[in-house]
Inverse folding.
């Protein structure tokens, strides 16, 4: 009860009781009633917990929930009062204050105070002031009876209808705003031709004429259909299963017939009636059509992800594309002006012919053709359509969807141009949109505004980006409360090939970790989509859209955005007077403590360019020996040594960091034997050094150390040592040490390597004899294998002959190797004759 915000509520409740304005009385009554309920809820809880017996869990929870609702239930904004709660009443107190201030400007009782708060429905704070001024200009006219009671009532009815239709925020932000700027009138409301700002009566008459009574019925019919479409969109699982597909598909086609039937929405969806309809009705209709376009698109994708066989999937795919194409035909022929795009009839005829001719039996139709570019083929493209025909059903699907979005976007832009949007929205968002021209070109389609969502707290502007065989969406999101922007990028399409979505994700995450382009939330990615959301500042908008263009080009296989954008960001830092090396070190330190994998990827880019060698060496050294684990992300602690080895390998390839890599390898091998992975990393690092002719002596000592380790502490360490000696022998190093090791542990493997290099023949003969004489079948096999290698080099044939003569079973196995060695001309002929006699005797 002692919280300041609760005390503030009680104080404001007391103050508002003194108001005599009738518009404020409901707020005062609501506040007083809420005050009493809060006091009662607190009293009940105090009584409950002051008893001897503790209350039950359910009873306590119920009482707390009541109080929680009274205190914290979120407000529901509108022209009327918000939901009653202490938190919700804050908005009502602000509304009451605005109404009181409005009344103070008038010598008479206000006529329009009850619709004053309609202006607050716009997320653009400047709109409320303009709406208030407009209403104040009407007040003296109403008092002098120059405005009739019917006109006053009709204005309030319009506001109420727009509120019920949930498009009041859109109306106030875009369409009412048009009255304030003479240059925008042709775009928003063609009837505001003169300087109506100086003639409030004319402005009112024009506003009332802009939304005739008949449009109310059309608007509610549109909203009813939109609600049904969204319900369909939430339940598309029927398309995934063969048993339910037909019913789901029939329902989708019925919905399309309802939307396109003659006379629907009082004939709104015709060229003759479209331009005559009010802006609000057309806006609502375009939003509904966009929802249905998306629903049809998602229905096809749901079918594609279902349990149908490939043969069945192709058949269903073509079946669904036929009515989807009919939707494109209807929107083109019924609503779109003939001159909206160049040569549309010819393109439609061609698409229809291609769709009908394509087979529904070939599974290849489910994939995009290699060279199809929807950005070049879509309506409005400047490319020649006859050079960019769709070749597969998947191409046609993409093209139909993008053409539908292009039509919807064109109709929207005719009603609300990009320039009009920029002038009607908050300055913060307008500045961000000014950089949109950075997107497009090099295989990337130009941004097309496809959707506009406006609520009292937020503005969301959607831009469709046609790509090759998939599409992208850019969303500019404005938050009124924080006056801040986010840019959301979505890539839609099959990103599995080449793991392109993973590459996009890693690039964006690295730049965020470096602090260049911060992400607003974790990246969401799956096989068919990736979603990236950036925080935006005025300084970063251009960089984000530059980077987005690079990401898009990378998704098309054209560019590597990480390399280009990181380097460009570093160059920008240099221009600010910071040295390149200094910038790189700072970025590396910042990133290294958070994600070793992305750190290595970043430095690999620099190393490939011959840059940042020393910084990479320092990072790798720190990764090998983390002195203060608390400074690093706990999730990746185990990965740091492995990533350090990868980074050292990259440096070694460039002839850098030899000594540091040697020390790192020694450290890894000398670590706790229980960390077998570390020893393996050390061996791998030594092998890379040996390839470059470095670290021979250190590698020999390390290999010996591994061989001599107590097997009880990890038998695999001896194997690591033998493996390292193999690499040394390949390079002509450590022969004598390897021979000694081969005598004791890694006999066959190591002796074979030595024999290849012309070394240790006699030692290998003794080892082979010893193996065969043990009597173990596996050991005998190893001995025979070793003799085979010796015979190839022309050694050990006398010992082999001795075995042939003394042991028929072993002799049978060895004789074939003698014959093979003779073919290599490495043993004397007389030995072969003796072996042949032996074989004949056996036969």
């Amino acid at each position: 009860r002692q919280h300041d915000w609760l005390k503030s509520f009680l104080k404001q409740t007391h103050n508002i009781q003194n108001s005599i304005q009738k518009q404020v009385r409901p707020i005062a009554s609501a506040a007083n009633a809420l005050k009493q309920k809060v006091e009662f809820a607190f009293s009940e809880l105090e009584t409950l917990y002051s008893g001897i017996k503790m209350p039950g869990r359910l009873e306590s929870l119920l009482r707390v929930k009541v109080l929680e609702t009274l205190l914290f239930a979120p407000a529901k904004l509108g022209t009327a009062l918000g939901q009653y709660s202490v938190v919700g009443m804050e908005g009502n107190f602000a509304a009451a204050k605005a109404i009181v201030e409005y009344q103070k400007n008038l010598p008479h009782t206000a006529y329009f105070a009850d619709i004053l708060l309609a202006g607050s429905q716009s997320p653009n704070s400047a709109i409320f002031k303009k709406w208030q001024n407009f209403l104040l200009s009407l007040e003296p006219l109403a008092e002098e009876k120059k405005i009739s009671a019917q006109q006053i009532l009709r204005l309030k009815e319009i506001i109420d209808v727009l509120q019920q239709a949930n498009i009041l925020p859109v109306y106030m932000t875009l369409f009412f705003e048009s009255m304030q700027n003479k240059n925008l009138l042709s775009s928003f409301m063609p009837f505001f031709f003169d300087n109506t700002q100086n003639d409030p009566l004319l402005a009112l008459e024009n506003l009332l004429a802009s939304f005739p009574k008949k449009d109310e019925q059309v608007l509610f019919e549109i909203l009813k259909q939109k609600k049904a479409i969204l319900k369909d969109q939430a339940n598309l699982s029927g398309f995934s299963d063969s048993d339910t597909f037909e019913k789901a598909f029939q329902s989708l086609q019925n919905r399309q017939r309802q939307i396109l039937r003659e006379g629907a929405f009082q004939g709104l969806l015709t060229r003759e009636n479209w331009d005559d309809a009010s802006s609000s009705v057309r806006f609502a209709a375009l939003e509904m059509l966009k929802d249905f376009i998306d629903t049809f698109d998602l229905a096809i994708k749901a079918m594609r992800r279902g349990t149908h066989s490939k043969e069945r999937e192709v058949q269903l795919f073509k079946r669904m594309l036929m009515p989807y194409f009919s939707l494109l035909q209807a929107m083109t022929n019924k609503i779109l002006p003939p001159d909206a795009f160049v040569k549309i009839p010819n393109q439609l005829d061609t698409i229809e012919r291609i769709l009908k001719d394509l087979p529904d039996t070939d599974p290849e139709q489910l994939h995009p053709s290699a060279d199809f570019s929807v950005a070049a083929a879509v309506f409005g493209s400047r490319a020649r359509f006859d050079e960019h025909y769709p070749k597969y059903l998947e191409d046609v699907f993409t093209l139909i969807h993008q053409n539908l979005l292009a039509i919807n976007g064109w109709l929207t832009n005719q009603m609300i141009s990009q320039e009009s949007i920029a002038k009607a929205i908050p300055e913060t968002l307008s500045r961000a949109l000014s950089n949109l021209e950075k997107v497009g070109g090099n295989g990337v389609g130009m941004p097309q505004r496809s959707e506009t969502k406006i609520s009292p707290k937020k503005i969301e502007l959607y831009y469709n980006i046609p790509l090759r065989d998939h599409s992208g969406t850019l969303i500019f999101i404005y938050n009124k409360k924080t006056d801040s922007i986010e840019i959301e990028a979505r890539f839609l399409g099959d990103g599995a090939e080449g793991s392109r979505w993973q590459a996009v994700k890693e690039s964006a995450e690295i730049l965020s970790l470096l602090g260049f382009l911060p992400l607003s939330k974790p990246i969401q990615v799956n096989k068919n989509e990736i979603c990236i959301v950036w925080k935006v500042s005025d300084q970063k908008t251009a960089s984000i859209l530059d980077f987005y263009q690079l990401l898009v080009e990378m998704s098309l296989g054209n560019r590597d955005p990480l390399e280009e954008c990181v380097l460009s960001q570093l160059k920008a830092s240099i221009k600010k007077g910071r040295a390149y090396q200094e910038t790189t070190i700072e970025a590396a330190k910042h990133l290294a403590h958070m994600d070793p994998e992305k750190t290595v990827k970043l430095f690999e880019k620099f190393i490939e360019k011959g840059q940042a060698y020393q910084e990479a060496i320092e990072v790798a050294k720190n990764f090998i020996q983390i002195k203060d684990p608390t400074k690093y992300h706990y999730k990746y602690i185990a990965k740091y040594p492995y990533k350090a080895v990868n980074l050292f390998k990259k440096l070694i390839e460039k002839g850098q960091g030899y000594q540091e890599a040697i020390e790192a390898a020694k450290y890894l091998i000398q670590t706790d034997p229980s960390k077998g992975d570390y020893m393996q990393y050390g061996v791998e690092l030594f092998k890379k050094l040996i390839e470059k002719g470095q670290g021979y002596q250190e590698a020999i000592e390390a290999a010996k150390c591994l061989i001599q380790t107590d097997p009880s502490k990890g038998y695999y360490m001896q194997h690591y040592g033998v493996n390292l000696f193999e690499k040394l022998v390949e390079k002509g190093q450590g022969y004598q040490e390897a021979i000694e090791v081969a005598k004791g542990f890694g006999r066959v493997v190591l002796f074979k390597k030595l024999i290849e290099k012309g070394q240790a023949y006699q030692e290998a003969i003794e080892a082979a004899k010893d193996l065969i004489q043990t009597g173990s079948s596996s050991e005998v096999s190893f001995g025979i294998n070793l003799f085979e290698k010796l015979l190839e080099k022309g050694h050990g044939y006398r010992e082999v002959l001795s075995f042939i003569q003394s042991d028929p079973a072993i002799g049978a196995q060895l004789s074939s190797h003698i014959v093979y060695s003779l073919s290599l001309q490495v043993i004397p002929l007389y030995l072969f004759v003796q072996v042949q006699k032996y074989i004949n005797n056996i036969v």
Summary: The first strand starts at residue 448 and ends at 455. The chain is about 60% helix and 5% strand. Residues 4-209 form one domain.
